[in-house]
Specification:
Layout (H helix, E strand, L loop, with lengths): L6 H12 L6 E4 L8 E7 L2 E7 L9 H13 L6 E5 L4 E5 L8 H16 L10 H15 L4 H17 L7 E4 L8 E3 L4 E3 L6 E4 H12 L3 H12 L5 H26 L15 H9 L8 H19 L2 H15 L1
Antiparallel strand pairs: 1-2, 2-3, 3-5, 4-5, 6-9, 7-8
Helix pairs in contact: 3-6, 3-7, 4-8, 5-8, 6-8, 8-10, 8-11
Length: about 325
C-alpha cells in the first residue's frame, strides 16, 4: 500500500517517532481531489494519520505546509504533529475519529474556529488568491465552454465587484484555504482542521464565505455568524464585504468546477439534474456527494451559477457595492 519508493522513509519516520519500524495496521483513506497519499495507521494500538506529499510544485512545499500545520496544532486547531519530514515529505499526526457534525452545531462553533485560525501568527505569503481566482475565471470565460448568452451578465457583474473590492495587504490573515467538509472534523466535542497543504495568507472573507455555504441558511443565521466572528465590532461594511466575497467565490467555484467537470473531453450536460444550493451543500456536508466525480463537479458548478445569478438581482447587491465604495473613499 505504501509506494515502494517511500517505504524506507516511512520506516525511518516510524523509528524516530515511536521506536518501531512497522505499523500494526494500515488502511488508505479517500483523498478526494488531493494528490497526497493518506493512510490511517495503528502503532502500539493507537491510530495515527500518515500523509505522503506527492506533488513537487509550490503548492506542495513541505516547509511552508508543515510550518502552518504545526502553528495550528499548537493553537489546538489541528491534530498534534508527531513527525513532519521536509526532505521525505511525510507527516504523522494524531488521527481524529470523526463523528457527525450537525449543521446547527457547526453554525455555533465554526465562527470561533475561523476567528482563532485568522488570529494565528501570519502564515507565509504565496500567491494573491484574488488574482489567482481572477485568472481561473478569465480562462474559463475565454474558453467559451458555455454560450456567452448564458453567462455574460454574471461576468459583467463580477467585473463590477472586482473593481471595487478592497485589496489591502493589512487585511490578509492566516488561512487554511481548503475548508471543505472533508477537512473539518468533529470529534463530538471540538473541531479539528486537517490537510494544511493550501495554507497561506489570504483575505479572511474567503473562508468566511466558504464556510457560510454550509452553515448560513438565512438572514438571521448570517447575522449570528458574523456577530460571533467579529464580536461587537460587526458593521454594515463587514456585512457588505462578506456579501460581495460570497459572489466572487460563487464565480470562482462555478468557473473552476465547470472547467474540471468538462476536462478530458466530457461534454456539458445542459439537462443534468441541478439540485438547489442548500440541498447540494447539505449532502456535501453529510458526505453523500464526492467532488471527484465528473457529474458532481458539473452539478456543483451549476449550483453556484444559479445562486450567484439570484444574488446579483437582489437590492442588497447594489447596496453592498455602494457601502464598500463609500468606505474606501472616506
Amino acid at each position: 500500500m505504501i509506494p515502494e519508493a517511500k517505504k524506507t522513509a516511512v520506516e525511518h519516520a516510524l523509528l524516530v517517532t515511536f521506536g518501531v519500524s512497522e505499523f500494526e495496521d494500515i488502511s488508505q483513506l479517500n483523498t478526494g481531489l488531493s494528490s497526497a497519499l493518506i493512510f490511517r495507521i495503528v502503532v502500539r494500538k493507537k491510530p495515527y494519520l500518515l500523509r505522503i506529499i506527492t506533488r513537487t510544485d509550490a503548492m506542495g512545499d513541505p516547509a511552508r505546509y508543515y510550518g502552518c500545520m504545526k502553528a495550528a496544532a499548537e493553537a489546538g486547531l489541528a491534530p498534534h504533529t508527531w513527525y513532519a519530514g521536509i526532505e521525505d515529505r511525510i507527516s504523522i499526526t494524531d488521527f481524529v475519529e470523526a463523528k457527525p457534525f450537525p449543521p446547527g452545531k457547526a453554525k455555533v462553533l465554526m465562527p470561533d474556529v475561523l476567528k482563532r485560525l485568522h488570529s494565528l501568527p501570519r502564515f507565509p505569503f504565496r500567491i494573491n488568491y484574488l488574482d489567482f481566482a481572477d485568472g481561473v475565471i478569465r480562462k474559463f470565460y475565454a474558453a467559451k465552454i458555455l454560450p456567452e448568452s448564458m453567462i455574460e451578465e454574471v461576468f459583467q457583474q463580477y467585473e463590477r465587484i472586482k473593481k471595487l473590492y478592497p485589496r489591502n495587504d493589512e487585511d490578509l490573515v492566516s488561512c487554511h484555504n481548503d475548508l471543505k467538509p472533508d477537512n473539518i472534523l468533529f470529534d463530538g466535542e471540538r473541531v479539528w482542521l486537517v490537510d494544511w497543504e493550501a495554507a497561506f495568507l489570504n483575505d479572511r472573507y474567503t473562508e468566511l464565505a466558504v464556510v457560510a455555504n454550509f452553515v448560513v441558511t438565512s438572514g438571521n443565521d448570517e447575522k449570528d455568524y458574523l456577530e460571533s466572528y467579529f464580536g461587537g465590532e460587526l458593521t454594515e461594511y463587514h456585512q457588505a464585504r462578506f456579501f460581495l466575497m460570497r459572489q466572487m467565490m460563487h464565480m470562482i467555484y462555478f468557473s473552476f468546477f465547470m472547467s474540471l467537470g468538462t476536462a478530458d473531453g466530457k461534454p456539458i450536460d445542459l439537462n443534468i439534474t441541478k439540485p438547489g444550493f442548500r440541498e447540494f451543500h447539505n449532502r456535501l456536508w453529510e458526505g453523500k456527494i464526492h467532488l471527484s466525480d465528473k457529474d458532481a463537479q458539473q452539478q456543483y458548478a451549476w449550483v453556484h451559477l444559479e445562486q450567484v445569478r439570484y444574488n446579483l438581482q437582489l437590492k442588497r447587491f447594489d447596496e453592498a457595492l455602494h457601502i464598500v465604495s463609500d468606505y474606501q473613499l472616506s
